[in-house]
């Protein structure tokens, strides 16, 4: 999740930028950079890794007097996390930072390259600065050149540009990615969220989509498609911790709401019109591979289980899933026609890492699905697919699980394409459904309010069973894990068809059953399983697009056409249910007792 800061004024700029970027660290990043123009001279520093690396590089530099400045933390999307790909990106005499994605960048880049422009990075962002300079070289008018540049951009962006051609101005534009302007006397600040400017600016204006403009001499000129625009500033909040949570009560809650947005990042550049493309995978990764084994722990194990259903059903490749801590000591028989996949949010989980090392020693090809680039698991693997969830602060994993599952769905289609085990019709159907996922992850006020009200009936009892079949069995496991992690209530995930083989003995009105009843997958089968429980007086909370008259509580979902859309929609319901129960019980949702975010011990 990239971050932007900017400042124009007399104050020392390096510290303002670095402090501002530090406030954005919690969003996650893999490189950072700053650019300052003072006395018409440009200074630029970039570093890969922690912000401290950038601090070290800029140690002997301080700015003095009036100047303009921009800074950025980058979370790699287009191109690897290298210094060249870090922002600010340069042209001949200008610098730009950008969050979001320029969808038509390839087209713009090719046009500029034909005209002899040399690109240094693999990013979409660099196009902005070259386009600006091309316009400026033709007009010698910086504002006109910037507005013409913005007109050409398609996609989502929040961007700041500074140039030696007009060294006392910062140009800005926003469409689809957040950006705000902070004010304090003649000082003007920019940032992609409140936290970098809290304590510095006193007033703020939150830019709206389609707005762009420039700031000079302490004034901000704002425009949109209708021309120049007036705007009203508001008082800036002073509570940083609150601002980091973007107004949500807990990071976990924020992360649940973020899933719809984050999923676009996960799919970006990978879900194409008629195929899946992973530019990070070598064409020969699947050569001589006729079997897949996935190893992971906890929530990541649940995404692995979901993936195994998809890989076998759609890609027609045998797939086994193992809990990493078990795999390590079972003396597994490993065959070299097996692709060994590890899944880990952190990339540092000791059991998963050790399982991977075992597979590597046995000579297997390895692929990791991970949220943290350069983590131990990524470095140890032959290939890696990053989930691009952004940093996850809540200890109970939500958006990491959603993006892992999405990557496995995409990987399934990729394997099916390579192995030619999917018809063009089915591939198209899957891709169409996939593109709908961000919508299925939207949390409506109505849903959240309903779950909040209903949660008060589930604070006692002698336990929960989350039940589902097929793909919805791993989701039941994950729903139960979420609940137990943050509510400390006992919860189990179970295949609904298995209840009659023992656990049904527990059924009474104090046994709460959360039934995942998708319409698009075995509806009638799971319905009879739930009926059996209802007949024994279990309390049923049913989640389904189909009204279910035996339910004591009912959450009606919307997507009944594709199992994965139902999966993601029901996942959100289980996450919010756990959240609301935990809040009612007065627990610390983000830091549940006895748990750590990254388990680096055996
Ligand atoms: C649950 C949770 C854990 C992790 C597990 C593996 O909410 O977060 O179960 O999934 O500890 O961690 P990673 O994915 O970092 O390997």
What share of the residues lie within helices?
A: 25-40%
Overall, the morphology is: globular
Low-confidence runs (pLDDT<50, min 5 residues)?
A: none
Question: How far apart are the first and last residues' alpha carbons, in Å?
Answer: 30 Å
CATH architecture of the largest domain: 4-Layer Sandwich
Beta-sheet strand percentage? 15-25%
CATH class of the largest domain: Alpha Beta
Q: By helix and strand content, what is the structural category?
A: alpha/beta
Bound molecules: fructose -6-phosphate
CATH topology of the largest domain: Glutamine Phosphoribosylpyrophosphate, subunit 1, domain 1
**Strand sequence of the main sheet, in spatial order?**
3-2-4-1-10-9-11-15
Mean pLDDT over all positions: 92
Radius of gyration: 26 Å
Number of domains: 3
Number of helices: 17
- Biggest sheet, open or closed, and with what strands and sense? 8 strands, antiparallel
Q: Determine the CATH superfamily of the largest domain.
A: Aminohydrolase, N-terminal nucleophile (Ntn) domain
What's the total number of strands? 25
Question: Any overview of this molecule?
Answer:
- It is a single chain.
- The protein has 602 residues and is an alpha/beta fold.
- Helices cover 35% and strands 23% of the residues.
- The chain folds into three domains: 3-244, 4-Layer Sandwich (Glutamine Phosphoribosylpyrophosphate, subunit 1, domain 1); 265-437, Rossmann fold; 445-584, Glucose-6-phosphate isomerase like protein, domain 1 (Rossmann fold), CATH 3.40.50.
- The radius of gyration is 26 Å and the shape is globular.
- The mean pLDDT is 92.
